[in-house]
Please model this.
Amino acid sequence: MTHSAIRDGGRLHDYVDGLLSGAERAVVEAHVGACNECREEVRRLLALRARLAAAPRAIEPPRDLWPGVRARLVRRAARDDAVPPPRAFATVRPRAAWRRAARRHARLAAAAVVLVVASSAVTATLVRRGNPTRGAVAARPAAPPAPHGGAGAGDASYAGYERAARDLAATLDARRAALSPETVAKVEASLRVIDSAIAEARAALARDPGNQALVELLGVTYRQKLDVLHRAAELSTEI
Amino acid sequence: MHARITPAAPARVAAAAAATIVTLLALLTPARGAAQGAGLQDARGKVDERRALTPTGSVKLYNLFGSIRVVAWDRDSVAVTGTVSPGERLFMGGTTQGLKIVVESPEERTAGGAHLLVRVPPRSRVWVKTSGAEIVVSGVTGGLDLYSVGASIRVTGSPRELNAEAMDGAVEVDGSPVWLRAKTATGAITLRGGGEDVRLSSVSGPIAVRGGPVGRGAFESVTGDIRFAGAAPRAAALTFDAHSGEVEVALARPAAADVDVVAITGTIENHITPARPVAGRDARGRELHFTTSPDGARVTVRSFKGRVVLREMP
Model:
């Protein structure tokens, strides 16, 4: 592979991002070892990555955004349940119950918004930390300066997931009575399985903070947790 | 002395009797379909309702227990037949653009629940939510959103969109939805067919895909096994993530793929090529990369501690 093919073909970027296959990486590494210009370019790209990693991991929405969002969610929830129940069966589904259902939908929707915001922030963080799919298993540069920020950065990344999980758990707790004991037991059992997997993956990540596959696996497991909580909260809404 | 009856008296009596009968009939006869939102029906529990619906209209169905069978038919209307348990009532209301069908129960659970057959236009969008009612859908080519807690969800056909979520109920799909999402906590997920964009996710239920082709697929579990046996076109991208479940990927022959596998503490078996896994970075875990075709499907497997097996289909 020629200098121009490596330099102008974007392979240095792929090399730094850990996207090259084993054979390609070896070729690029050999060239970088022998070419001052490309070595300097790699150094510059790694420095850029480090600066990006230090950038804010989440941007908080303006404080005055929420009331408007909430109002729209409430209106939508009310609209979704606009078809009234038959009056003859009012004892079973009085209008007040439907209004309560609308309010519950709104709270669930609020939790969903938190989930989406948190997930987006964390996903963006993970993407910044490396290629989300291929990079995880593709070969990495031989010895780059630690670009991922170590376990501490991981903790910060997953704080968004934890926060979203806490919010959903609180929503679910408030509605626990609407779920059968069997369903609650199933949800709790699944959460225990997930929490155990999260603990294992986090411990492994603390030992090997640059392991992109672990980052991906942990992200998947956190998403599973949010999914279960969200589904359980959704199931507890009144029909 | 006899009461004197005027000639008009018989007519007045007859008129009063007729008015009484009409009033009673009006009170006792439900105004079937006369007004939107009008409900139901038969105290004994037999259901037979029909409403017009545009070909791409939406139908929302709620039935906590029993079963719901949704079948596409070639008409611009929705028909609901079946039975409801004593104490349950069926409400059906809405417009020609969207209908809501609710089985209302005075108690949380009634014996047997309601068993409904719902016929819908093929291109309609159907939303079903149940607790313990089995959901079976066939022939719908529009969109499907199906939710259940403990009962199974079965879909036959190839809807444009299918979202199926259950806690411990199983999800089974026979067909190739264009867009498919299925999630369970402990229930099994089975796809016999493929899809352009597929994501199957379970906490501890097994995930099985047989057939394909799958264009873009993501298969995720925590402790459940994942088994894929099918075709992956050249442009396909398949990702498998498991914490402790086993991942088995069997590609249709000849397997044209660019494969990356990482096992943090588990094992990797490759029966497709002679390539063998090597120690990962810093001697942690195992990694395997091989390519049988440079423009083949991209297959990525990540496993924390489960076994990973790669093979070609027999």
Notes: Chain A touches chain B through 50 residues (CB under 8 Å). Residues 95-129 of chain A form the longest helix (35 residues).
